[in-house]
Specification:
This protein is an alpha/beta fold and about 350 residues long. The chain has helices at about 5-10, 35-50, 90-100, 130-135, 150-160, 175-185, 190-210, 240-245, 255, 270-275, 285-290, 290-295, 305-310, 315-320, 325-340, and strands spanning about 65-70, 75-80, 85, 125, 130, 140-145, 165, 220-225, 230-235, 250, 265, 280, 310-315. About 40% of the residues lie in helices and about 15% in strands. The strands form 4 sheets. Strands 8, 9, 10, 11, 12 and 13 form a 6-stranded mixed β-sheet that branches. A hairpin with a 2-residue loop joins strand 4 and strand 5. The protein is globular and about 55 Å long. It starts with a helix and ends with a helix.
C-alpha cells in the first residue's frame, strides 16, 4: 500500500458511534411506575446521544463575508457566502460545528460520525469524494484537506465555480490551533477561531496536568488494522499518533524503534523491536480482527509485553487523529485506559 493511500485512509477513516444500553426492569409488584420507567428510558437516550457530540461555542458570531484567504494548495480563495458548506473530512466538519455554524453544513464525509452530523447526506464513496453528489447540493463553500481526493473530483468541483479551501492535514497537537483558525477565517469568524483555539488548548493542557508522574514511560505501538482486507500495519514516524502518545506521557514504540515510514507491515521482528507495553488501535480496526482475542493471534503480538498482558487502548476511528476541538477527550480516554490500573 502506498504511503499516500495509507495517509488518506488514516485521516478519513470511517468512525464508529459510541452506544449506550439501558437496562430497564418492569416486573410487577416491584413498586416501579410506568412514568419512572419512561423517565429512565429518556435518560438513557440522552446519555447515548451525548456520548458522541461536539460542544459548540456559546454565542457564536455570524460570518462577516466576503473574505479572501490563503489555501494550502497555494491558491487564494474568496468566500462570498457560507450558508451551504460541505466539509470533506470528519475533522473539518467537527470544527465547523464547534464554531456554532453546523446549521450551515449540508453534507458530510463518512468520517463525520458525531451526533449532530450523522443525519446529513454522505458525499464520499469508500473515502473518495463524489463530485456529482457534492455539486447536487449546490454548496457555496467546500472545505478539503490536501489528502482529499481523487484529484479529478476536486477539479470538477472547482471547475463548477465552487470555492474550495484546502487545509493541511493534522499530524500533531501543534496543528489544532492553525486548523481551527484556517476554517474560522474562511467562514468570516476569525475571533471565534481564536476563542475555540484557546478553549481547545486550555482543555488539552488541563488533561496533561493530571497524567500520573512516572519514572519510566510506557511504550505504546499504534497499529492500523483492517482484518477484512488483511491489512496489518504498525505506525512509525508521521503516523499521526506520536504527538498524542507523547502528550499522554508515553513513548511511540514504533517511531522510537526506528520505523521511518508512516506505516510498515507488521512483522514479528518489527513488533519485537518495538516491544510495546500497550497497543493503541482504532475501535473499528480492533473489531475487524475479532477483538483482543483476534489481535493477539496476529504473528508477533502475543510475544510482546502488551500482548502478554492484553493491554489495548481503543479509540473511535472518526476522532483519534482529528487533532481538533475534541482532542482533549481523545487524550483523556488514552490516559484513562493506559493508566487505569495505576501502573
Amino acid at each position: 500500500m502506498k504511503d499516500g493511500t495509507v495517509r488518506r485512509r488514516r485521516t478519513r477513516m470511517a468512525g464508529a458511534l459510541l452506544s449506550a444500553l439501558a437496562l430497564l426492569t418492569a416486573a410487577t409488584g416491584c413498586g416501579g411506575s410506568a412514568e419512572s420507567a419512561e423517565s429512565t428510558k429518556e435518560t438513557a437516550k440522552e446519555t447515548a446521544a451525548s456520548a458522541n457530540r461536539v460542544e459548540p461555542l456559546t454565542d457564536p458570531a455570524k460570518p462577516q463575508l466576503p473574505v479572501t484567504v490563503g489555501s494550502s494548495d497555494g491558491k487564494k480563495v474568496t468566500v462570498r457566502a457560507a450558508d451551504r458548506i460541505v466539509p470533506l473530512s470528519g475533522s473539518l466538519s467537527e470544527i465547523v460545528f464547534t464554531l456554532g455554524l453546523g446549521d450551515r453544513v449540508v453534507a458530510r464525509d463518512i468520517t463525520a460520525t458525531f451526533d449532530q452530523a450523522k443525519k446529513l447526506p454522505v458525499v464520499t464513496r469508500n473515502h473518495d469524494v463524489s463530485a456529482e453528489s457534492v455539486l447536487s447540493l449546490k454548496p457555496n463553500l467546500v472545505l478539503a484537506e490536501t489528502t482529499t481526493g481523487p484529484d479529478e473530483a476536486m477539479e470538477q468541483i472547482r471547475d463548477a465555480g465552487i470555492p474550495v479551501l484546502v487545509v493541511d492535514p493534522a499530524q500533531g497537537l501543534e496543528d489544532v490551533g492553525p486548523r481551527i483558525q484556517a476554517v474560522a477565517d474562511a467562514l468570516g469568524v476569525p475571533a471565534d477561531g481564536k476563542r475555540l483555539t484557546q478553549r481547545s488548548e486550555d482543555r488539552i493542557a488541563a488533561v496533561r496536568k493530571e497524567i500520573p508522574a512516572r519514572e519510566e514511560h510506557p511504550r505504546v505501538a499504534f497499529l492500523y488494522l483492517r482484518g477484512s482486507a488483511s491489512v496489518y500495519l504498525i505506525g512509525g514516524k508521521g503516523s499521526g499518533a506520536t504527538s498524542l502518545l507523547e502528550a499522554a506521557g508515553a513513548v511511540d514504540a514504533g517511531a522510537e524503534s526506528g520505523l521511518e515510514k508512516d506505516f510498515t507491515a507488521i512483522t514479528t521482528e518489527a513488533l519485537a523491536q518495538a516491544a510495546p507495553d500497550a497497543i493503541l488501535v482504532m475501535t473499528k480496526g480492533l473489531e475487524s480482527v475479532g477483538g483482543i482475542d483476534g489481535l493477539v493471534k496476529i504473528p508477533g503480538v502475543a510475544q510482546t509485553p502488551a500482548g502478554m498482558e492484553r493491554r489495548v487502548v481503543s479509540i473511535e476511528d472518526g476522532v483519534l487523529l482529528n487533532y481538533g476541538p475534541r482532542t482533549d477527550q481523545v487524550l483523556t480516554s488514552i490516559v484513562k485506559q493506559l493508566y487505569e490500573d495505576g501502573s
